[in-house]
Amino acid sequence: MSDFFQNGVITNFHNLTGRTTESLEKEMVQFARKRKMGLILPSLFSELEGPALNHIVDELAKVPYLEEIVIGLDRADRDQFLFARDFFSRLPQRHRILWNDGPRLKALDAELDKEGLSPSEPGKGRNVWFCTGYTLASDRTSCVALHDCDIVTYERGMLARLLYPLANPTFQYEFCKGFYARVANNKLNGRVGRLLVGPLLRSLQQVYGHSDYLEYLSSFRYPLSGEFAMRTHVLNNIKIPGDWGLEIGVLSEIYRNYTTRQSCQAEIAHNYDHKHQPLSEEDGTGGLRRMSNDIVQSLLRKLATMGVSLTSDSFRVLKATYYRNALDMMEIYSHEASMNALHFDQHSEEAAVEMFTQAILEAGQAFTERPNDKPFIPSWSRVQSAFPDILQRIYQAVEEDNEGHV
């Protein structure tokens, strides 16, 4: 395989020809005869009220090859769930909504919590986890994709490109990650990926030594993308974080369970934009500050499980190393912006780097102060060992919510 298609240690598929969505979908329909495909959509109710998800649903309604769509719905009361049922009813594919705040799923969650098997806090990770449980219980697909519900530039060809490496029966990939350029409104976006994750992965290798795992993460063009796909059986044994470390946590689990030859990434869009997070909320938490803290802790936990000695002194060295690398990368991005006639706000970029630098120290402190925290939601294989009928019960609860009275 030529270097053009190989990025570090994983296979890298570019969108070279601008192939039409219709031609891709014709192939996908053929693939679906052997490999049934599904989609998971983790959503907040508030996203149903915005323009992005409405357009996404309109696009998905045209997809001819999907066997099932599983929608995780958070922060919805009864009336809002009923609204959601009507909202998604235009989808011609089989689709089910997981009403995560409804009495049936909350009762199951309470049972799991008594055994320490429930996600410790609400959020995207918990939403995705229950959706994967239902997907396993439904057993209608052999590969499944996941993407966010706030993509304002969504086009259904993105889904076809994401699923193609798994759906093609002549390929043997287990996992595919989506990537794309983060440019919109005449400026560079993706601050967490550009200014935190990239320089941090380089800094971790400088401070703690070479790591095949860190090299693997560095191979992904956009490790924080919320668009990925995998063979459905993979869902049985992965342990995902319940916080903003979800994307890094999924990559880490794929690395642990599969060879790098079984992973790939695909360019799914030339243009991508979605809802942007503020640097932090008014109380100094949330936003990119909370996100960056969770991401750093996810990386530290993984390195610790691999035998890397993480100390308070090394965190201070890591902070200084990261800061220098991030400023160097920021300068390169300013040159790239200039070459492409894009707006570049040096002040806001440096402010982000300073906030990420502080987040590294805070994450290191949290890591050392709470060594007994359970960082991952248990895998479904473990949950089933404690509750052998749990998947059937989740399936029944969801069916009753979607088809019965609530």
Automatic annotation (TrEMBL):
Tree of life domain: Bacteria
GO MF annotation, one: transferase activity
Matching InterPro entries: Nucleotide-diphossugar_trans (IPR029044)
Keywords tagged on the record: Transferase
Gene3D superfamilies, A to Z: Spore Coat Polysaccharide Biosynthesis Protein SpsA, Chain A
Protein name: Glycosyl transferase
Organism from which the protein derives: Mixta theicola
